[in-house]
């Protein structure tokens, strides 16, 4: 890199560094800026040549040495020969197309979360498991089989007759449950599957809201990067002018350092926004069940729109909200459990068959058949299910009151969010249509006066910072607005 003074000596401008008036200062600025522009054009031209060589290497691969010749003649030949130009284009276009990063819209991301998220898939498996658990609830207990002795004397006892030797007994026993109790338990278990499906919808709504907020944060970060890039270009121009004026004693060394510090501060702000984009990309990838470093872009032209609900009565909210549906399924499941507990008052049955074969002579083969029934209405037994039924009834009433309170609270919150969103929209419109244009005009006038050497650098930097601050404030308010819209849509389960 050449120093600034070395550039001036090689250009042999012949401009005196002492006592220059305003006109001579302007002439010096214009001449030196032309030199900077021409230097940048030369750098861009050489950069284009390097990019052409890279594209040729991509197109021809290891055979590039066979086609190596001077770049100027090559491109002249391509322009004169349309067929060759089309041939090279056909080779390069697929290579460039494969290198493009996919652009995902918000709807595409939300659909992929719905289809691919692992946590959401787990709810479907849980609901399926309850279906099989319900089938298992109607199964009977396994039969009991036993073999042993019956009325057999202890060893060493005196046996008076062969009939005193006892018998070999074979026993079979089976419990016969009450069908009404089994059917009630089956319905209760099946109702849990509906709760799991409703839980999936509630979780999906949370994921959608989180994805929207990440998408909006990414969108605002991109807009902030554009603002910072434009601000950086203005500060680079002022930095270059200060570097040009300093050798002629028309600027202070501190001004050069100040513009350099502002440029570095802008770069740090860019890095912060790039970090926000990287975080949003990683989180969205994880929610879509993709690798965290998978690359994609978002639709930078997307603008979230606020659509107020047509009606906010509790009945329409109860129809729209999935968490209310989940509470309804919980209440239904509790009622089915109460019904199953009430059926505990019905009796169960048991049957037993015994077969005895005598070990001695003189005794016939014998059998015994016995049927048994439980008596659950006994006071010491009925106390258990009666108390559980009473407790669950109170729990159902509490859930109904909680549901009504949640609907009433949501209704008031949504009305408040509507007013707040409309107010924020009016504030942003006023800032964009009135305040920012005024600050932009102020900066343009100050930059013009600065270039004509009528204003000092601190005044220009003050107007530059005022515009940057207002533009960032507008984007911050937009982000708040977008997040508020996402929360509003979350409450309505859109």
User: What is the approximate shape?
Assistant: elongated
Distance linking N and C termini: 58 Å
Largest sheet features: 4 strands, antiparallel
CATH topology of the largest domain, by name, is Outer membrane efflux proteins (OEP)
Number of separate strands: 6
**Overall average pLDDT:** 79
Helix-strand layout with pairing:
Elements lengths: L3 H8 L10 H39 L10 H10 L1 H17 L4 E2 L1 H11 L1 H19 L7 E7 L16 E10 L2 H67 L7 H35 L9 E2 L15 H7 L1 H21 L6 E10 L7 E8 L5 H73 L5 H36 L2
Helix pairs in contact: 2-4, 2-7, 3-4, 5-7, 6-7, 7-8, 7-10, 7-12, 10-11, 11-12
What structural keywords apply?
single chain, 494 residues, alpha+beta, Outer membrane efflux proteins (OEP), 2 domains, 4-stranded antiparallel β-sheet, two-stranded parallel ribbon, 69% helix, elongated
Notes on the protein architecture:
Helix 2 (22-60) crosses helix 4 (82-98), helix 7 (179-245) packs antiparallel against helix 8 (253-287) and helix 10 (322-342) runs antiparallel to helix 11 (379-451). The chain is built from 12 helices and 6 strands. It has helices at residues 4-11, 22-60, 71-80, 82-98, 106-116, 118-136, 179-245, 253-287, 314-320, 322-342, 379-451, 457-492; strands spanning 103-104, 144-150, 167-176, 297-298, 349-358, 366-373. The strands form 2 sheets. It has a 4-stranded antiparallel sheet, with no helix packed on it. The protein has a two-stranded parallel ribbon with strand order 1-4. By secondary structure, it is an alpha+beta fold.
């Amino acid at each position: 890199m050449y120093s600034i003074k070395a550039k001036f000596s090689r250009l042999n401008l012949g401009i005196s560094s002492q006592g220059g008036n305003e006109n001579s200062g302007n002439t010096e600025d214009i001449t030196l800026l032309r030199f900077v522009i021409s230097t940048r054009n030369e750098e861009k031209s050489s950069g284009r040549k390097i990019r052409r060589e890279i594209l040729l290497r991509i197109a021809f691969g290891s055979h590039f040495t066979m086609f190596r010749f001077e770049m100027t003649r090559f491109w002249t030949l391509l322009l004169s020969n349309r067929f060759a130009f089309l041939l090279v284009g056909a080779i390069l276009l697929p290579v460039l197309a494969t290198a493009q990063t996919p652009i995902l819209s918000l709807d595409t991301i939300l659909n992929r979360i719905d289809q691919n998220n692992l946590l959401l898939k787990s709810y479907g498996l849980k609901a399926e498991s309850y279906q099989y658990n319900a089938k298992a609830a109607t199964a009977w207990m396994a039969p009991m089989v036993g073999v042993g002795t019956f009325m057999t004397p202890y060893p060493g006892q005196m046996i008076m007759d062969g009939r005193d030797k006892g018998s070999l007994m074979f026993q079979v026993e089976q419990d016969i449950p009450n069908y009404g109790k089994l059917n009630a338990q089956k319905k209760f278990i099946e109702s849990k599957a509906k709760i799991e499906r409703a839980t999936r919808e509630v979780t999906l709504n949370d994921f959608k809201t989180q994805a929207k907020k990440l998408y909006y944060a990414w969108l605002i970060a991109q807009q902030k990067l554009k603002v910072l890039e434009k601000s950086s270009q203005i500060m680079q121009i002022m930095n270059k002018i200060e570097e040009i004026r300093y050798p002629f004693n028309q600027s202070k060394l501190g001004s050069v350092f100040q513009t350099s510090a502002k440029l570095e501060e802008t770069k740090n702000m860019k890095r912060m926004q790039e970090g926000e984009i990287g975080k949003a990309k990683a989180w969205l990838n994880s929610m879509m069940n993709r690798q965290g470093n998978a690359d994609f872009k978002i639709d930078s032209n997307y603008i979230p729109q606020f659509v107020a609900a047509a009606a906010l009565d509790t009945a329409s909210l109860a129809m729209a909200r999935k968490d209310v549906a989940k509470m309804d399924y919980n209440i239904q499941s509790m009622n089915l459990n109460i019904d199953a507990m009430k059926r505990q008052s019905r009796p169960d049955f048991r049957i037993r068959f015994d077969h005895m074969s005598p070990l001695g002579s003189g005794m016939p083969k014998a059998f015994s058949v016995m049927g048994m029934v439980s008596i659950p209405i006994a006071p010491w037994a009925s106390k258990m299910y009666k108390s559980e039924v009473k407790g669950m009834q109170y729990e159902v009433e509490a859930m109904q009151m909680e549901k009504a309170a949640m609907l009433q609270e949501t209704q008031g919150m949504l009305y408040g969010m509507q007013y707040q969103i409309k107010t924020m929209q009016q504030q942003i419109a006023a800032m964009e249509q009135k305040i920012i244009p005024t600050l932009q005009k102020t900066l343009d006038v100050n930059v013009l006066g600065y270039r004509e050497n009528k204003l000092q650098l601190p005044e220009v930097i003050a107007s530059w910072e005022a515009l940057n601050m207002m533009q960032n404030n507008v984007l911050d308010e937009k982000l708040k607005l977008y997040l508020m819209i996402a929360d509003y849509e979350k409450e309505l389960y859109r």
